[in-house]
Amino acid sequence: MSQDNAHAEHYHPTWKEYKWVALILFLITVVEVWVYYIPELVASKAFVPGLLIMSAVKFAIVVMYYMHLKYDHKLFRSLFVGPLLVAILTLLGLLFLFSKIAIRLSGGG
Amino acid sequence: MSASADAAHGHHYTTTGLDNRKIAIWAFIGSECMLFASLISTYLIYKGKSLVGPFPHTPWTDPSSGKVFPAILNIPVTSASTFVLLMSSLAMVLALSAVENRGKPLPPGAGAWDKALTSSKLWLWMTCLLGAGFLAFQAYEFTSFVHEGLTIRRNLFGSSFFTLTGFHGAHVTAGVIWLGSLLAIDYKRGLQPSDALAVDLAALYWHFVDVVWIAIFTLLYLIPG
């Protein structure tokens, strides 16, 4: 193992970074719950994509900083991101097969 | 360092130069992604297909009895439990940091908070208690749902909801037991920087349980059917 890899594997964020990560996660959760109680926002087309984006950001923050994947070896990243992509594609494929999501083709008869 | 010397020092390096236990936990977490994706897919496919209530986001009147069932999801309670789980992840990283930095001298002028940050027992206790708190919220939620007429056999929503959140709750329970065992070791002989990997493996599992909940909270609770 190279010294660089060994060092990279052992770097973890500090308390100050963890504090900011926790604060950001808390604020995103507050916004998520807040928009749930605004009927105009719930009715808007941006509601579901907005919630999914906020959820994805929280997911990525926890994985990168708390699970320190940002600083870890590439192999660990591959072991997580590979199956995660398969899982997401499987989920989307199943939703497509069961007509939960659809692709709208323009100009179709 | 030779392989035999590595083994003697408790290291388990593979030909990649990485510890095999850490490779194993990441491979396990990857497989868990697929497990939870299948459970979430099942929930989403069945979403809105229940023939009888109670429903998650809308009230329902039973045509045979005229009884009105309110929307069953309790967002304030679940938001509180989500906050508890997020904070448990913060406590977990602080526990790992405390184990890694054990024995290092505190900087001059360090206050009570700096000393608290060095206590792995404190942060492991916090993580365990917050995890148990999350399970208490889930027990309350499940009990209230059953009292309001939603069981695992009642409708498609009940079946897929209890299966998904039940599996997640079982993972949290396993995590609390794992953390409890680390706490027991800490009391018995004190967790040392050489034990950091053992704590890191538990922490990775714990954070994974947290990110799964992040997805569940949005997809099940916040997006109306």
Please give a structural write-up.
The complex is a heterodimer of chains A (109) and B (225). Chain A has 109 residues and is mainly α. Chain A has helices spanning 3-10, 15-36, 39-43, 47-66, 74-97. Chain A has two domains: 3-72; 73-109. Helix content of chain A is 72%, strand content 0%. In chain A, α2 (15-36) packs antiparallel against α4 (47-66). The radius of gyration of chain A is 19 Å and the shape is flat. Chain B has a single domain (3-222), classed as Cytochrome c oxidase, subunit III, four-helix bundle (Four Helix Bundle (Hemerythrin (Met), subunit A), Up-down Bundle), CATH 1.20.120.80. Chain B has helices at 3-8, 20-46, 75-100, 112-117, 120-147, 156-189, 196-222; strands at 60-61, 68-69. Chain B is an all-alpha fold and 225 residues long. The longest helix of chain B has 34 residues, at 156-189. In chain B, 68% of the residues lie in helices and 2% in strands. The chains are: A mainly alpha (109), B mainly alpha (225).
Q: Please report the first level of CATH classification, the CATH class of chain B.
A: Mainly Alpha
Largest interface: A-B, 47 and 50 residues
Question: Quick one: biggest sheet of chain A?
Answer: none
* Helicity of chain B, as a percent range: 55-70%
What is the approximate shape of chain A? flat
CA gyration radius of chain A, whole angstroms: 19 Å
Order of the strands making up the biggest sheet of chain B? 1-2
Helix fraction of chain A, binned, reads: over 70%
- CATH-defined superfamily of chain B: Cytochrome c oxidase, subunit III, four-helix bundle
User: Biggest sheet of chain B, in brief?
Assistant: 2 strands, antiparallel
The count of helical stretches of chain B stands at 7
- Enumerate the spans of chain A where pLDDT stays under 50 for 5 or more consecutive residues: 1-8
The end-to-end distance of chain A, rounded to whole angstroms, is 60 Å
Query: What is the residue-averaged pLDDT of chain B?
Result: 90
Distance between the termini of chain B: 58 Å
